[in-house]
Amino acid sequence: MNAVVVVGHNGLMSASDERVRVEDALAISERWLHELDLGRLTAVRLADLELTQDVDVVAIGKASREMSGAVGAVLGERVRRRLIVCDEASVARDVVTSEVVVGDHPIPGDGSWRAGQRLISFLDDPTAAGCTLFLVSGGASSLCVVPVPPLSLEDLRGVWDAALGRGIDITALNQLRAATSAIAGGGVLRHVTTATSQSLILVDNVISGAEWVASGLTYDYAPTSDEVGGLLEHVGLVNTELGARLLRAFNRRERLMVVAPTSHHENTVLAEPSMMLEAAVGEANRLGYRVVNMGSRVHGDLPNVVAHWKKAMESEAHTVSPTAFVGVGEVTVRVRGSGVGGRCQEFAWLMADVLDRFNRRGAFVARASDGRDYVEGVGGAWVESSTKSRLIEAEVDWLDVAQRHDTFPALRTLGQLIEGGHSGWNLCDLYVVAW
């Protein structure tokens, strides 16, 4: 352990002080849920759009039900038709109707395929509406798919596995998906028959923003063959049978995209990760912390991100006042083996080692805004300065767990998982150190 000693007015902090840090970090990480109001944000954005026509609503993603409900509350009977594509978690409390299709996430399945076919038929059907309103949130890339032949569902799963193994960032994965999809990357706009169309987008992509939410569903994407070749190399599929099928699908999609949309389309951001960050910083200040703002674009390979946070903490180690490090983003995890965990659980696990290196008690929280950190029922995780020492008592090898990416069972043993559940949002992950 490094000899970094931080002494406050009353000497080294006690275990009870550490518990306060845990409670504060958790409070900071969840404050945004109480401050952001989807209905209010939706009303403001719709007013800005000055929609005068009746609309057909197409809501796709993890927050599709909530977004559709918010639009319905504002527009009322002006909504002519509605299609909602959501995940199992968001529909569990309600009866599935003809307006609702349940897709699969995070890996596309039969439900995703059916959702894609339903989307195309919905848009192709005659309508009395003057505008098609797309409500787009994260997860749509998996929940609703129409791969261009000769690609199959099994091929889409293969792309997911390859991306996970190589640890490519979400933007690159979504670009590859869009380049071989009949609906992503603007393909869906070729099926819109209303005079105009609009999108309201919940941003969950800190690297490239609204354009690559849902694999650029309502943004035209026309990559070159060289660009697609680079994506295949990035994901490790060059000179493979799957790579060859992806190239054939891309070539066929190029011909489909030559046809221009007949409707006039505009994209609008409904909410973005910086809103979460603002709420978290405000709560940290209210609790008496001096805040180190780590920004709303935290991304990259997880070990590199952890090293950056450790360096930031080292630069503040001389201070005696309570300090909070707050950031929002989405880290990349390169998964090897069959371990069970999620991005937030992985981040927390590695930060347990960072906290252990300082003689200053503190806590780290990583929370998924959609309420699901890959494992059902888990919304994130927290660790504290004493976590690694507690592992000895629990006979858990920290390094072994880290190498096997098997963080879920270990954190469950410690009782340091955050309960998860459908939140109705999808704005990336929130990270907090309370020190």
Structural summary, described in words:
The protein has 435 residues and is of the alpha/beta class. The protein starts with 14 loop residues before the first helix and ends with a strand. The longest helix is centred in the N-terminal third of the chain and has 21 residues, at 15-35. It folds into two domains: 15-35 and 274-434, MOFRL domain (glycerate kinase, domain 1, 3-Layer(aba) Sandwich), CATH 3.40.1480; 38-271, Glycerate kinase, MOFRL-like N-terminal domain (Rossmann fold, 3-Layer(aba) Sandwich), CATH 3.40.50. The chain has helices at residues 15-35, 38-49, 64-75, 88-91, 110-124, 140-143, 153-166, 170-179, 225-235, 241-257, 273-286, 302-315, 343-356, 387-393, 398-404, 407-414; strands spanning 55-60, 79-86, 100-102, 131-136, 196-202, 264-271, 290-301, 323-332, 363-368, 378-384, 417-419, 429-434. The chain has a six-stranded parallel β-sheet, with helices on both faces. Strands 7-8-12-9-10-11 form a six-stranded mixed β-sheet. The model is unreliable at 1-12 (pLDDT under 50). It is globular and about 65 Å long.
